[in-house]
Amino acid sequence: MNPIARRARGMAMTLLTMTLISACSATHQAVTPARPAVDTSATTSAKAPTEPTSAQRALAARAAALGATEVSAVPGPEGGLLLGGKLGGDQFAVAIPAQWNHDALLYAHGYSTPGSPVNVLDDPTAPGTGATGVLKAAYDAGLAAGHSAYAKAGMGVETATVNTLRLRDFLVRLGADKVYVSGSSMGGNIVLSLLEQHPQAFAGGLAMCGVTEGWEPLFAQLFDMRVAWNQLTRGTPYALPGEQDALRTALPTVPPPGDATDPEQFRGMQMARLATPVLALFKAAQERPDGPEARIARQVAAIGGFENEPASVAYPLLTIALGADDLRQTMGGQLYGNRGKVYRVPDMSANELAEFNRQVQRFGADPAAIAYARRWHQATGRFQVPLVTLHNRIDSLVPYAQSQGLGRIVHQAGNDARLVQFTVPGVKAPLPIGGVVGYTHCGFDPAQTVAAWNALHAWVERGTRPSEDLVH
């Protein structure tokens, strides 16, 4: 669950992630299914086609007959087809290889800042989807690779579940046999939502850096972190700008009427406004380890349950500060409440701790929001197909605790045989503002993600559960 989508999401990732290193060979080679491939290319000429072949045009015509609107069909990589259009009014895109083996992999992207565009890339195999090479690897192995836009930005598990399932059903009618689903960040939660609520729809799932336990524990951390930051930085240069009520969005995410600023640029500017005081505090903390800034950093990180480092405080604060209004509107109320909670804060005297607990903002949770979050989606552990997860040991937005939480839930459900969890080290990168270094969110290189995908694919095709030390 990256806090920002496409350009705005890319800007956030630039702020807090490293440049992905080049992919090397995956640990496993993808398995070739037994069913003969369908040749959707017209020739084996090395010259790239400029028009769809007759077989590809027939596939596009069938897509329209199946209810897709605004259908487009253009030549894709290596003689394949890029099929696009709308299903139920929302955009989709699927890359179908020239030698399609009748299987498919769908990808669910992560969280996007409210107000962000909801469109997806026309070529799912191209860089920029967030899939970190997984869709391209599946396409190269003969699978169709696709993704769907969501009906809204921000908290989108419900619409993503509906739209991804709709795309799955469409591909089955188009000729797909087995369909897999993958996702990153919020998309990892969408994978759980699909596998648990639609147990017969997918052959297997891959959740990367995902909210795989559920939203209640994660947003408890984010709201606790925001109220702690507000309380501890009040009256200092490090206070967040804008609305100080932690239940509201701090800064608008769309330009006001009459403002000609490009919306994506506007969101990037708002992100920078929020990130600047956070990173300035950490810069001061690094320069003065015994100073007040270092003390605040330790306290906020401890209250939120994140690492005491710049990105692991900035990412959560930006996410909740720009998404609080959308969260309430989508879930039908406030998901988390802290009334009656006694905060334990390091480096505070008994009097300071009592004062903090008296002054920190308090609020209650709404049952409707809790019920919504549990449906969209709190893991039950009762999925019926293989599930592979991939998580960094330290992640600056979706803590490793989410991966551990899923493991506990699955074990309690007696379903360990269907889950394999890969853990890889956290990755640090310089942040372009603030002069500090921080951990990434979804800090994988393509070799790791492709190895995880190949492990899932081989598991489904061969029936052999992979070793949990396969990806590292």
UniProtKB/TrEMBL annotation:
Region (Disordered) residue ranges read 34-53
InterPro entries cross-referenced by the UniProt entry: AB_hydrolase_fold
- Keywords tagged on the record: Signal
PROSITE patterns, per database record: PROKAR_LIPOPROTEIN
Question: Which range is the signal sequence, renumbered to this chain?
Answer: 1-30
Give me the stretches of Polar residues compositional bias. 40-53
Q: What is this protein called?
A: Pimeloyl-ACP methyl ester carboxylesterase
